[in-house]
Specification:
Layout (H helix, E strand, L loop, with lengths): L1 E2 L13 H31 L30 E4 L3 E4 L12 E5 L5 E5 L2 H12 L4 H12 L8 H24 L4 H5 L5 H29 L5 H16 L8 H33 L2 E2 L7 H9 L3 H22 L1 H22 L15 H17 L3 H33 L6
Parallel strand pairs: 1-6
Antiparallel strand pairs: 2-3, 4-5
């Protein structure tokens, strides 16, 4: 049985930064097309208001029992028609302001007008707007808003994903493999993925934070004319609070993405290393645990065919992505709610009523805000949308990392043929 360190190592063909970037771009395009519908449902699930208890007493009339959300009506009050003509606040209210009327003829030829209970229409509309699961969200969005609405936000997603993944993946590779990287010099292989993944995510998140805010608001808004309304809202926000407001959700993004990246890359490399070692043992090779294994494993993977690389990277990416997604779901809930619900604060600020929103829970720090969600909604509130998040993140991570690894392997083969190291 041969030991891997006794086998004469071959120098590994280098891949240029542009080739790594091209691999990241191709993975970004494929991932965005496939998982955007799940991301739309995730944002809707996390940002929708909690449904009121059905056992609560129902109002008997609009004039005597006005619900709390209607005490401060916004200036852009609109009309939405579903089954009946009703007034809604921001297209998200749970009670009718104006009740539908029906006319019935009487015996003497006169017309008698009756008023239908407003709560019946409100319940219908609330059920249509609120989602109970990922599948329910996909079905209702496709039925009520059209199938193209499932890819709402795809354009900003692509604009965001391409530069983000180029910075993220190439930055991670440089931090992990470059001889000039301090992580490679001073951090052990066991913890290097945690630190390299976190630092790469900080750089990527800082660059694309404004685009992600635009995408999140766009996906959370139902109805038509969403792009123009979202863009107008961001313009009003910048006019009132300055350009730094575009990075307002960056802190929450860091709370979510930095631990996610550290957990993801640590899990990915651990799983991928286990799969590589298992294949080496099947070939009769044994890895010495006392020696650094990064280079030897890299050389072993360079000899794998495309199918093996695809299967191993896809499996490791899906497993580590799912675990990281579940662990960081509370941070994702907090981030989504802040960026979506801040829109109402922007409207109040532009109308000169900013002080009315000063005590909102969303304005608290991340730990205090998550504690508020835990106290009011329990653990289900903290993990709302976890299934949609996992269904989106796990395949997204698997598709992205496998596309990236296959792209790098193809680039390495091209470089070897160019250098005359592969016989044709």
């Amino acid at each position: 049985m041969a030991r891997m360190e006794d086998i004469e190592p071959e120098s590994e063909t280098e891949i240029s930064a542009s080739q790594k970037m091209l691999s990241a771009v191709s993975g970004s395009l494929l991932t965005s097309l496939l998982v955007t519908p799940l991301d739309v449902v995730r944002v809707r699930l996390q940002s929708q208001p909690a449904v009121c208890n059905s056992s609560a007493p129902r109002p008997t009339s609009v004039s005597t029992h006005i619900p709390q959300p209607f005490t401060n009506l916004p200036p852009n009050l609109g009309v939405t028609t579903c089954c009946k003509e009703v007034f809604w606040v921001n297209n998200n209210a749970q009670y009718c302001l104006a009740t539908p009327t029906t006319s019935t003829p009487t015996i003497n030829g006169l017309t008698h007008t009756t008023t239908t209970s407003p709560v019946d229409c409100a319940i219908d509309e609330t059920r249509r707007k609120n989602f109970t699961s990922t599948l329910d969200g996909l079905r209702k969005i496709a039925r009520n808003e059209g199938i193209p609405s499932l890819w709402r936000g795809l354009s900003p997603t692509l604009v965001m994903a391409i530069p983000a993944n180029v910075i993220y993946f190439t930055g991670y590779d440089s931090l992990r493999t470059s001889p000039h990287s301090p992580i490679k010099t001073y951090v052990s292989d066991a913890y290097a993925p945690l630190l390299a993944g976190s630092l790469a995510r900080i750089a990527a998140a800082t660059v694309i934070s404004p685009i992600e805010m635009f995408r999140t608001r766009m996906q959370a808004t139902p109805g038509t004319g969403v792009f123009r309304a979202t863009l107008s809202g961001l313009q009003d926000m910048v006019a009132a609070q300055g350009y730094t407001s575009l990075w307002r959700g960056l802190t929450l993004t860091m709370w979510r993405d930095v631990p996610f990246s550290g957990i993801y890359w640590w899990g990915y490399e651990a799983t991928r290393n286990a799969l590589t070692d298992m294949r080496d043992r099947q070939r009769g090779r044994v890895l010495d645990p006392q020696r650094s294994s990064t280079r030897l494993r890299s050389q072993s993977r360079s000899k794998e065919n495309h199918t093996t690389t695809l299967v191993d990277s896809f499996t490791a990416g899906a497993l580590s992505g799912a675990v990281a997604a579940v662990v960081t779901t509370p941070f994702d809930v907090g981030k989504t709610r802040q960026q979506v619900l801040k829109h109402a604060d922007d409207i109040a600020t532009s109308a000169g009523k900013g002080s009315a929103m000063a005590t909102r829970p969303e304005d608290r720090s991340m730990p205090r805000f998550l504690y508020h969600i835990f106290r009011t909604e329990g653990l289900p509130g903290l993990f709302r949308g976890w299934a949609a998040r996992c269904l989106k993140v796990a395949p997204a991570c698997a598709i992205m990392i496998s596309s990236y690894e296959i792209g790098k392997k193809m680039a390495r083969n091209v470089n070897e043929r160019r250098d005359g190291r592969v016989e044709t």
